[in-house]
């Protein structure tokens, strides 16, 4: 069966994303074929497309390459050993991370065990926006051991990871502060955090010291925010390219600091899907783009201004 994927044949600007024809590979016994309805878009997709970072290095001799780690759709075929999933079931997952990707595609073959069933109350567009960003947020809070007694500052609280991290930290009972621009103060406050407008001056002049910093910005912004953390406090810096620098500076200030790379975890995805179904977590979808307009989605994610998440919609012109 012929279908479309959005691939890069060379690294470069968003325009290098082009539709290519593909035909369905055969299934191994533990795999399923998913008809993808939506694919999530994440900053790493754009960085890799531009030829930056580890996934690009590893794939440079493996082009054309299909980006995309977040998918949601319906099962259309199951391998011989697959007992947990059936044809017609709605599923979502964090697939092919970090080297394989493959989500920007109308169909994808994946290991059955990498997928979550999507509860009936949740739209597939929401399920596609959740996996990578949600699991990053979950694992960051877990690594930083955020608990009910903590004051937590989250940088970029309005972004894909940030808006989920804010809600998960509040669900743990923490007191949450989140930095954003004036345009996002209402959005971030609506999630339950105290929004801090970073254009209004240095963050440490706007809030009292915090126990934990979840740094979703890295670089200069991450380093500057270290001044907000109590001596002995915990720093988790998420952007990998500046993690060493932020950690070094944090340690010089007497803080505990580490970076992280998200690891796919189906149990965490299941737990967050359940929270979504129960109305205990909200995902904001800023925009949907047809697969063929993936370049526009990449321009949007590269703007650094995305509120919540953006997704690619399959089968839409
Ligand atoms: N290590 C890992 O495993 C891992 C996993 C996931 C993501 N990441 C990385 O983590 C970072 C965040 O990812 P994401 O998906 O959340 O990105 P994103 O959705 O693109 O973040 C966009 C948000 O950043 C905010 N922002 C921009 N400049 C800001 C500033 N100076 N201070 C505070 N907020 C600012 C914007 O809000 P305003 O418009 O209000 O400024 C916007 O809402 C990216 O670098 C990504 O590559 C790493």
Automatic annotation (TrEMBL):
One of its GO terms (molecular function) is oxidoreductase activity. SMART domains: PKS_ER. SUPFAM superfamilies: GroES-like, NAD(P)-binding Rossmann-fold domains. InterPro entries: ADH-like_N (IPR013154), ER (IPR020843), GroES-like_sf (IPR011032), NAD(P)-bd_dom_sf (IPR036291), YIM1/Zinc_Alcohol_DH_Fams (IPR050700). Residues 12-312 form the Enoyl reductase (ER) domain. This is NADPH:quinone reductase. The lineage of its organism: Bacteria, Pseudomonadati, Pseudomonadota, Gammaproteobacteria, Vibrionales.
